[in-house]
Specification:
The structure holds 3 protein chains of 3 kinds. Chain A is mainly α. Chain A has 14 helices and 4 strands. The radius of gyration of chain A is 24 Å and the shape is globular. By secondary structure, chain C is α/β, with parallel strands linked by helices. Classes of the chains: A mainly alpha, B mainly alpha, C alpha/beta. Chains in contact: A-B, A-C, B-C.
């Protein structure tokens, strides 16, 4: 087709790109600029400095220990929080993908009628507002909550279990619940396009169900699975509301530090520097992930 | 249709339970005669629903969020579909960096985006804050999701269908409407749903970009200081949850009746 | 910006655009150098307030006098609201609290208030009229409106009787109560710890440097580990207390009133180290476009005893107007744990605002204390 030229491609990209440049480029430029300034009382000192970045990485001979891990920094808080947020996001993302994958498979290969209804039903819990969802989890996991009351009524336990809420497990469950639709839908979308004749061919060649899953479905659903992993992982690193609400006193994350620096601590330049370091770490990890799974090769292979 | 009752089927059942189980406590406590959501239950009441209906600002916030969510979902997809097509179907130089740029809103902390967009709206463009400014903010964070979902649908599709349509003399638009769009449809529906829930649920950016018309999350967060109002919000949540589920199922039932007038058995 | 310099300018009747730009430069987005346009918000009064206060019930007579109620923009936390106003959101009136108003003044956003234009000012508790936060450097910058106490609420049916006999803030640092109490998510925890250690509030409120770091290491770290969660909103702590998840919590009067209304046993302690009083109020912002008289009428309506009665009976908060306690149902006042509001106001510790640099240090130390929790 003649129109498959870069020119047409650019024209198709233009509207979305223009919107993104207008709304995103300026904030980003400002953020970068801000991170090289410094806060002096209530004023911003506009002379160029690397002090904000230096403060994040400044080494110290006396490491601060956090769960036995040494952090050899003079100001270890950003480093500790980044590590903690990454770990939390990793665990939550793994849980989300593992839970979502079979469901997406069910939707793509088992549901034959009313798929749209299924898709909508999967998203309806998210129409009720984040706050109410977290609240629901609190009354599910809480001291006098549904699980404890149910188990006590059944005579399984005598006293309420206290370890259900306000800990990393509660954070993982709540996060998994919050993001599950963001994983099911992309994975479903990429499975949906798998050519059924490929599966039949594999079956004809004597592949078992598991072999078909491993040799056909899994590789072909990879683009969606990769997309879902990133769509869940990246925003989760910066999420600080869920950990604060169900994580107990240890629920401080890198996002909370950034928010505090921009508001209560009145140190926007430092907040900008921490944001940029966080963004770079996430971008590097995302790049590493895409390289490890061979995403570029995958795209080239699929390219027309 | 034969429905297999195997492990996968039970998994789906459990999945739906995980998704809806905790949510079902909302309707339960919305009719519980107490201001606190604790067991044991106290008795039946509809007073929380009366409180909800009497709360004009909550209803206005709900309306605002619905309009916003629908609008943002549609516009985000109108922008994202051509972009996803370009990135999957055309050899655009620099498509890697472009894609990376489009994913940026995922990494930028929302407080940074919220404050920066507020400053830009007011100081650069002199736009008074309204639902339009909120919509602009939501659009930015929706585009990465829409583009990703649509791309994972469009990637790897055999372009020969579109080419055939072109060879048969169909114009670009008619090829798009008759071939490309139907092909992309599962992706479009998924991406519409995702964008809707992102916009409907977003708090930080909405807070900074709203004027005097509040969105539902902004309204709900602002109610936390008054615990007596909590049951009213539970009533609203229940109504949304149960109401939309019933509506969707009803619509499907009616659609099937339309397909099979004899009321056909499954 | 130097606060005194700012107040001088304020008293001379205005803040220059340059000052506004400097203030907004806190968010330093490159565009601060651009001219600040006047936003056409119409002539209607724009009020930035807590969600729930955005109704006409709290401003009796305003609608009758002016034909309509103001436009409201709501928030749930002052820090975000401050950030929004700083970034350029134009509002006429804002509802901050004693611990946050100074930040609005420092940011160059507040106007001096002429109390002679408020008919209800004479009935405001004398302690509140001159409290830190109402007055900053001798000028009234916030009209106190709603207030309450901060003390320990406890479940008498679940708590050790030893606490009831001799209530102390030490409960938040006591391993015996680990996972059974909840403190507010605030640096106050460090200061209260130091008070439990024997210091007075006047000695701890502006503590900084090494003494603060030391208190954070001993008391802060301990307190963060003892609390089941650090609460950020009243709904969260009241729900947990109602369910028995926690047996004691840092609480305002409304918790006591709300739980009692549901028949849940709860009492309000008067700890031996003292009980605190906080207050919120109305500040006039210089970014608004509406007629100033509208703003004064709004504030005056908020100060009326009828508003106070509604606040006391409806949400369990106190009101700045002494007369509202005469108007309100005595049973409702008692349910808040207040028998003699005037005496409580006199004897309780009124929260004070440390100097800005100390406040910023406190905020940082508190965030770090939580971040380093293991």
């Amino acid at each position: 087709m003649a129109s498959r030229s870069p020119g047409t491609g650019w024209r198709l990209l233009a509207p979305a790109l223009i919107v993104m440049v207008v709304t995103l480029a300026l904030p980003l430029a400002a953020l970068i600029l801000l991170s090289f300034w410094s806060q002096n009382g209530f004023e911003i000192d506009r002379s160029f400095t690397l002090s904000n970045y230096w403060r994040i990485v400044e080494p110290s001979s006396q490491p601060t220990y956090w769960f036995g891990i040494p952090f050899p920094f003079a100001y270890p808080v950003p480093a500790i929080l980044i590590v903690k947020s990454l770990l939390m996001a990793l665990v939550a993302t793994a849980a989300v993908i593992l839970l979502a994958w079979p469901m997406a498979y069910f939707l793509a290969f088992r549901v034959t009628r009313g798929k749209v209804v299924w898709l909508v039903l999967l998203t309806i819990p998210f129409w009720t507002s984040y706050l109410l969802r977290v609240f629901s989890w609190k009354i599910t996991l809480g001291f006098n909550g549904a699980i404890n009351s149910g188990l006590m009524a059944l005579g399984v336990i005598d006293a309420p279990l206290e370890f259900l809420l306000y800990n990393p497990v509660a954070v993982t469950i709540t996060l998994a619940h919050s993001w599950i639709a963001f994983a099911v839908l992309p994975i479903y979308v990429s499975m949906e396009k798998i050519d059924r004749s490929l599966l039949e061919a594999a079956a004809d060649l004597g592949d078992s169900r598991w072999q078909r899953l491993r040799r056909v479905t899994l590789p072909l659903s990879m683009p969606g699975t990769i997309a879902a992993t990133l769509l869940v992982f990246i925003p989760t690193v910066g999420d600080y509301v869920t950990p604060a609400l169900v994580g107990g006193p240890g629920g401080t994350m890198i996002g909370s530090l950034i928010q505090q620096l921009f508001t209560r601590q009145d140190n926007a330049p430092m907040g900008a520097a921490v944001s940029i370091v966080m963004m770079l770490v996430i971008a590097a990890l995302a790049g590493l992930f895409l390289w490890a799974v061979g995403y570029a090769r995958m795209r080239r292979r699929m390219a027309p | 249709m034969t429905r297999r009752i195997d492990g996968l089927f039970w998994y789906a059942v459990l999945f739906v339970l995980f998704l809806y189980g905790p949510m079902m406590l909302m309707p339960l406590f919305s009719v519980n005669d107490s201001n606190f959501a604790t067991f044991p239950l106290q008795g039946f009441t509809t007073r929380h629903y009366a409180a909800m209906a009497a709360n004009d600002s909550m209803m206005a916030a709900l309306r605002n969020s619905l309009v916003l969510g629908l609008g943002v979902a549609v516009v985000a997809n109108v922008l994202a579909l051509p972009a996803a097509l370009a990135l999957t179907r055309y050899r655009v130089p620099g498509s890697g960096p472009i894609l990376a740029f489009m994913m940026l809103p995922l990494v930028v902390p929302s407080i940074v985006l919220g404050v920066a967009l507020l400053v830009i709206a007011i100081r650069v463009f002199s736009i008074p804050l309204s639902l339009w400014t909120v919509a602009a903010g939501h659009l930015v964070i929706c585009i990465p999701f829409a583009v990703t979902v649509l791309m994972s649908r469009l990637e790897g599709f055999d372009p020969s269908l579109e080419e055939a349509s072109g060879d048969l003399g169909a114009s670009g638009i008619s090829t798009f409407l008759r071939v490309t769009l139907p092909l992309a449809m599962p992706g479009v529906i998924s991406s519409l749903l995702l964008c809707f829930i992102i916009s409907f649920d977003e708090f930080v950016i909405s807070f900074f970009l709203t004027g005097t018309q509040n969105t539902l999350p902004v309204f709900l967060f602002s109610q936390l200081r008054f615990p007596n109002r909590l049951p009213g919000t539970l009533a609203l949540g229940s109504l949304i949850l149960v109401g939309s589920a019933i509506l969707v199922i009803l619509a499907e039932v009616i659609r099937r009746r339309g397909v099979k007038p004899e009321g056909g058995a499954l | 910006m130097n606060r005194l310099k700012f107040l001088d300018k304020m008293s001379q009747g205005g803040i220059s655009r340059r000052d506004m730009l400097k203030a907004s430069a806190a968010f330093g987005v490159g565009s601060v150098l651009l001219p600040r346009p006047v936003l056409a918000q119409g002539n209607s009064l724009v009020c930035l307030t807590w969600g729930g206060y955005d109704v006409e019930d709290y401003i009796p007579g305003f609608k009758e006098k002016h034909g309509s109620i103001p436009s409201f923009s709501v928030f749930g936390g002052e820090e975000e609201a401050l950030a929004k106003v700083r970034a350029g959101f134009a509002a006429d009136v804002m509802h901050p609290c004693n611990y946050s108003v100074q930040r609005f003044v420092n940011a160059g956003l507040a106007k001096e208030i002429d109390t002679s234009r408020l008919s209800n000012w004479k009935d405001v508790f004398p302690a509140l009229q001159t409290a830190e936060g109402v007055m900053i450097d001798g000028k009234v910058v916030m009209v106190p409106a709603d207030w309450g106490n901060s003390s320990i609420a406890y479940r008498p049916d679940l708590i050790d009787p030893a606490f009831v006999a001799d209530p102390s803030w030490g409960i938040f640092f006591d391993d015996a109560y680990a996972g059974k109490v909840s403190m507010l998510d605030n640096e106050l925890l460090i200061q209260i710890g130091a008070m439990v250690g024997g210091m007075t509030y006047d000695e701890v409120y502006a503590m900084s440097g090494e003494p603060l770091a030391e208190a954070a290491r001993t008391w802060g770290a301990k307190g963060v580990n003892v609390s089941r969660f650090l609460w950020t909103d009243a709904s969260e702590v009241q729900q947990a207390m109602a369910s028995g998840e926690i047996v004691a919590a840092y609480a305002w009067n409304d918790l006591v009133k709300n739980l009692k209304a549901e028949g849940i046993p709860v009492e309000y302690a008067i700890p031996k180290e003292g009980l605190f009083t906080w207050f919120c109020g109305l500040t006039l912002l210089n970014s608004g476009a509406a007629d100033e008289q509208l703003a004064y009428d709004f504030v005056d309506a908020w100060l009326s005893p009828e508003t106070g009665k509604l606040l006391i009976e409806g949400s369990g908060y106190g009101h700045a107007n002494m007369k509202s306690f005469e108007l309100a149902d005595p049973a409702e006042v008692a349910a808040m744990g207040l028998t003699d509001p005037v005496a409580v106001m006199r004897d309780a510790i009124l929260f004070r605002n440390p100097p800005d640099e100390v406040q910023n240090e406190l905020n940082r130390v508190w965030t770090d204390t939580k971040a380093l929790k293991q």
